[in-house]
Write a structure and sequence with these properties.
heterodimer; A: four-stranded antiparallel beta sheet; two-stranded antiparallel sheet; 63% helix; disordered C terminus; B: 254 residues; alpha/beta; six-stranded mixed beta sheet; four-stranded antiparallel beta sheet; 37% helix; globular
Chain lengths: 413, 254
């Protein structure tokens, strides 16, 4: 096997491993391990899409977690406030929809649910079980979440067109904090710090190939998140291999030079924001339905730093490296939770693990700027280039002389 | 036939009137030198022609199409390509990828061998095909300049503006670049070359434009420009004793 093919073979092996894992893993803490995997996939989607934005396109945005939050809150609010009922309530905002009614609940915030009831709860009390209302399907909320994430991506992309490097980072940091503060402040609608609850991904359980999974089973969300990750990676791969990938990298290297060579830099800069923020929003929406609650703290800058660190440690200029790195780092961080005692000193690893993580980040930035995994992948994929250059150079002679007019071949038009 | 018509261009940066009613025409595959002291407006003129900077007034027509209000990428597609004073290769992309960018921007298909074939021909033209998979940052300064020229060949414009093609290169590499410029011109490209290398400019060009603080003070064959008292006063006389050393023209860039 050629050395260049090693990364592909490893990729197939890793995918096979994760497909088989839920069925072959027999160690302890099954649900806990599965949970770490699901969260790992979630971070992998964020890290790999962020690597497309920051590593490929050079748009070092700190707003990625905010887009994740836009997706999560969109589906949360959608599932929280919108219902379908066969009968009109008479007190809620409602629209006729075919033979049914689209009910929009009134926001009541977190103030004592025993005394104040929303309009739908009042109506249901009145109906006393005679009318069956229907929740909105989770998948519809997830799609809305992703679309609204894309709209936000478009707006931010347009606003940051002229901003570069540090200014872009500051702008997106500001956007991210404003969004978090707004969600925290709008207690009436978003329930503020209390967070908003969502229905589970498969609220009524799901039957696959004759096997019934309850809503708390880990296998369905595991595969939902895993295939979402694979889907995102396939899209990112396709993008990176198409003219889109070439143009956004040219944009990263030199925006003016790219424009002077005919690249519509505005279009690609906005497009890369839209696509990556849709991915982040999609991951956020699914994750919110998996953990069934979303709070403003999920949008904290610490969470963003985690995604940045995962991508940078693994290799920000390679989205596959970023994805694998995110899963590995999520696992390592969880494994490092176990505290231990030396003599009479107890090391509280729940706190110290982050220090360890920070040190790895700093060492990576200092000694392996391209990241640990990406460097490894490059060794396999580009290792032959230098040798090839030397061989061809010997064959051809030095390049700093002009070949004679007659000896020249292949004249460009 | 290639036709560039520049008419009464004005550009101000604050109180600095960088281009004053500049008008000239290019017809056919001319080889034109653009000279002038630092701060004369040479780079600003390039930026206005290429769409990077919008003029305050005046018009530019390329082959009958008005281009002075178009964004850079549209101007590039219309048929005007330029290099930059400081080499701006895409450093963390391979040599081939550098060449693919303009070809794909023109809408050529990514798959298929046509673009690759064209890129390999360009690399063979510059005898650089052995470097095709190296990152551009691994290239020498001179090779990067050739790569920039190569990217322009992939863009295949009618008019090429070279901003300081000889700046900061070894005399031997300068000869190489000189020779390639001549050969590109022979393929029917009009060229405007900005340089302080008077020997090269006088040898290469059949026509010289002289800018002095935003005024186009001369537009003639090299012999006539050389003996023009106004030009000698403004530029040539002053550079006599430091010919070949002036390489930077930072003024008037965006």
């Amino acid at each position: 096997m050629n050395r260049q093919h090693v990364p592909h073979a490893l990729g197939v092996a890793i995918v096979t491993f994760f497909v088989a894992f839920p069925f072959v893993y027999t160690g302890g803490n099954y649900d806990y391990i599965m949970h770490i995997c699901i969260v790992g996939f979630f971070y992998a989607i964020l890290a790999s899409s962020w690597s497309m934005l920051a590593g490929y396109a050079g748009q070092f945005s700190f707003g990625h977690m905010a887009f994740m939050g836009v997706g999560a809150y969109t589906t949360a609010l959608f599932c929280h406030y919108f219902f379908i009922s066969p009968e009109p309530t008479g007190i809620c905002t409602e629209f006729a929809l075919g033979g049914n009614y689209l009910i929009i609940k009134n926001p009541i915030g977190v103030t004592s649910t025993t005394l104040t009831q929303d309009c739908l709860a009042q109506a249901m009390e009145k109906w006393d079980g005679a009318v069956a209302i229907t929740r909105m399907p989770v998948w519809l909320g997830v799609i809305f979440g992703s679309l609204v994430g894309g709209v936000f991506g478009l707006l931010i992309g347009l606003l940051v067109l002229r901003l570069r490097a540090a200014y872009l980072a500051l702008f997106t940091l500001g956007f991210s904090e404003i969004l978090r503060a707004t969600i925290s402040a709008e207690i009436q609608i978003t329930r503020g710090q209390a967070g908003i609850e969502l229905p589970s991904l498969f609220e009524n359980g799901i039957t696959i190939a004759g096997h019934v999974f309850s809503k708390t089973d880990k296998i369905p969300p595991y595969f939902v998140m895993f295939f979402l990750l694979l889907g995102c990676l396939v899209i990112l791969y396709w993008l990176s291999r198409s003219r889109f990938g070439l143009f956004v990298r040219a944009l990263r290297e030199d925006q003016d030079a790219a424009a002077a060579l005919g690249v519509n830099t505005t279009r690609y800069k906005v497009l890369v924001f839209v696509i990556t923020s849709m991915m982040a929003a999609l991951a956020g929406a699914v994750q919110a339905h998996y953990v069934t609650i979303i709070t403003p703290n999920n949008l904290m800058i610490l969470q963003m730093s985690l995604v940045v660190a995962m991508a940078v440690i693994a290799g920000v200029e390679n989205f596959v490296a970023a994805a694998i790195g995110a899963i590995l780092i999520e696992f390592t961080l969880e494994m490092l939770r176990t505290s231990f005692t030396i003599g009479d000193v107890t090391i509280d690893m729940t706190l110290w693990r982050l220090v360890f993580f920070g040190v790895v980040l700093m060492l990576t930035l200092r000694f392996a700027r391209n990241g640990l995994l990406a460097t490894l992948i490059d060794y396999f994929r580009r290792g032959h280039v230098a040798a090839e250059t030397v061989a061809r150079h010997k064959e051809r002679g030095p390049s700093d002389s002009v070949p004679s007019e007659a000896g020249r071949q292949g004249a460009p038009s | 036939m290639i036709e560039l018509a520049v008419s009464r261009l004005n550009k101000r940066f604050g109180g600095n009137h960088v281009l004053k009613n500049v008008s000239f025409e290019v017809k056919g595959a001319e080889m034109i030198g653009l000279i002038g002291p630092n701060g004369a407006g040479k780079t600003t003129l390039t930026n206005v022609l290429d769409g990077a900077v919008k003029p305050n007034s005046g018009t530019v027509y390329l082959n009958g199409k008005r281009i002075d209000q178009l964004p850079s990428f549209e101007v590039a597609k219309t048929g005007l390509g330029r290099t930059f004073q400081v080499t701006r290769s895409f450093r963390r992309m391979t040599v081939l990828e550098n060449l693919y960018v303009p070809a794909l921007a023109l809408g050529k298909s990514h798959s298929g061998d046509e673009v690759r074939q064209q890129a390999m021909e360009v690399l063979e033209f510059f005898t650089m095909e052995h470097l095709r998979n190296e990152y551009a940052r691994a290239l020498s300064g001179g090779q990067q300049k050739l790569l920039e020229l190569g990217r322009l060949l992939m863009l295949d414009p009618d008019i090429i503006i070279l901003d300081e093609p000889f700046a900061g290169v070894h005399p031997k590499m300068m000869e190489v670049i000189y020779e390639y410029i001549r050969r590109v011109n022979e393929r029917g490209k009009a060229m405007i070359i900005i340089s302080h290398q008077m020997d090269s400019i006088f040898a290469l060009c059949e026509r010289l434009l002289v800018l002095d603080y935003g005024d186009l003070i001369a537009d003639d064959v090299p012999e006539a420009v050389k003996n023009d008292p106004v030009v000698i006063e403004a530029y040539l006389g002053a550079t006599e004793d430091r010919s070949g050393t002036g390489q930077n023209d930072a003024a008037g860039t965006t």
